[in-house]
Amino acid sequence: MVPTKVEITLRKADQLAWGKLEDPNYKPEPEPVEEDFLEIPESYQPDWDINDDDISDSDEEEAPEVTQQKITEQITEGLMKKQQEMQNSKRKEVEEEMKR
């Protein structure tokens, strides 16, 4: 026999009353924002190791050029693969149903 009854236990994520959880017009109180992390000390000086006199090109990395066409081809290829996988999975489902 196959069981026909399922028991589910739910647990509230918030400590609010169930009535407030079900009220569609209920708006939770905004959580207090800690302002300590927003304040920057006046004497704050970032410790960056930057030399303004050095303007050589050796610091810049040459990024490979990726054209819009290549990006489009990659996206199209990915979509085609997904579509092919979906068709294959549907085909397998139909084949399994036919075997039954």
UniProtKB/TrEMBL annotation:
Statement: the UniProt record of this protein carries the keyword Metal-binding: no
Statement: the UniProt record of this protein carries the keyword Cytoplasm: no
Polar residues composition bias: residue spans: 66-75
Chain positions covered by the region annotation Disordered: 20-100
InterPro entries: HSP20-like_chaperone
Residues annotated as transmembrane: none
Residues making up the signal peptide according to the UniProt record: none
Bias (Acidic residues) ranges: 49-64
Protein keywords: Integrin
Any GO BP: integrin-mediated signaling pathway
Amino acid composition bias (Basic and acidic residues), ranges on this chain: 20-30, 79-100
This protein's name: Integrin beta 1 binding protein (Melusin) 2
Organism (species): Nothobranchius korthausae
